[in-house]
Description:
Strand order of the largest sheet: 3-2-1-4-5-6-13
Structural class: alpha/beta
Radius of gyration: 24 Å
Number of strands: 13
Number of helices: 24
Amino acid sequence: xxxxxxxxxxxxxxxxxxxxxxxxxxxxxxxxxxxxxxxxxxxxxxxxxxxxxxxxxxxxxxxxxxxxxxxxxxxxxxxxxxxxxxxxxxxxxxxxxxxxxxxxxxxxxxxxxxxxxxxxxxxxxxxxxxxxxxxxxxxxxxxxxxxxxxxxxxxxxxxxxxxxxxxxxxxxxxxxxxxxxxxxxxxxxxxxxxxxxxxxxxxxxxxxxxxxxxxxxxxxxxxxxxxxxxxxxxxxxxxxxxxxxxxxxxxxxxxxxxxxxxxxxxxxxxxxxxxxxxxxxxxxxxxxxxxxxxxxxxxxxxxxxxxxxxxxxxxxxxxxxxxxxxxxxxxxxxxxxxxxxxxxxxxxxxxxxxxxxxxxxxxxxxxxxxxxxxxxxxxxxxxxxxxxxxxxxxxxxxxxxxxxxxxxxxxxxxxxxxxxxxxxxxxxxxxxxxxxxxxxxxxxxxxxxxxxxxxxxxxxxxxxxxxxxxxxxxxxxxxxxxxxxxxxxxxxxxxxxxxxxxxxxxxxxxxxxxxxxxxxxxxxxxxxxxxxx
Length: 533
């Protein structure tokens, strides 16, 4: 059996450990993949580093350099790709280097590729190179499955599109935001289809722990491990006074002048040390300037309001899941124009975006008389508690609002819509009617039925996922630390092998089909009632 893997930065040695488990215990004897870095590709192909003999590992920087040297794409080839895969701009918007011009008001580091991608020909040449590579590789040497750690850029989305055409199972990890648990998704949007399958199972009955989690989430919602990391990063970047900032930026300067010593050329997608220093300095100074301007209110206004938490951009939650709303000012304007008379629109930015949006971005929001910007350090749950409606693209705040009994309007294909407790806006021209419908849906269900559905989803989040901590995804772990996690790698390998076997028996899932979680999947009442006492 053959598996094609993504080797993504710090996840590379973990993907290699996964390959070892697949080979030792699940009958896989052929391994190939794509690496986001040239150094990791070389490491994987060196037999001194791993017992796995990789037949092929493509370094993505080579593809970018080839596209840059070619310059102009082939118009005939682009027409062929568009006929085969539909709108190509969704793949551009999914990539923070190629599609950053679609993200209004976002401050991103300069890179060699990002600068050249301002040219239309260069942008489309890069996209053509990705399709050329994945079509050739997956057609000439078809794997039994393709596994990506995450779908967060054009390469993964292109791979999923090619897998869809060739009927190859596409698998990826997705975070549940439930403690340290992840799921193995069969869709390119990283939505938890195994969780939704479990939620829809009539035999599911929430355990007491699920009911307890429901009550706790309503009274004092628990922050995810990602939120805690965001708080730490915010404190490191923006904590202290101006003197601390200046000292920190000066202390980082020696690294800027360290010469490039790798035995290969720089990745055109990666900023140089100087570009990274300039970006970080701009972000820190920009946030201080915006805070001093008094744009942010300390809390929500009195009276009725709808709450809109902004998403990180560029990031998969918008650029991949809902590319039509990657420019979030479009969404802010639509909501401001569609609110019921007398309501305010409370907008809160995502904590990691502090300093990474321009002042003009926030000024545009405040041009609407009914819009209010609040301090981004406020927990979203505090704002949900007093809101008449929570509007989201596809973020976790929508699920938190459902649990707290607040009406939810989603603009993306959010997984928690499977509870039937929220409403999906398909056309912003009808946003006023959709707001009314979302409020009507929330009023339609009494507290007992709402609780039953939420408790079922809490139980499904556990049953349809597995323990896979934040550091397993994003931290650098040494060999002894990886050895200590061997059981987790084996568990993931077992799940991948089982999912491939299921695809053979039942058919390959469409990685772009969202119907499983954008409609009410709740079984008839009867199962899952709150236990007595």
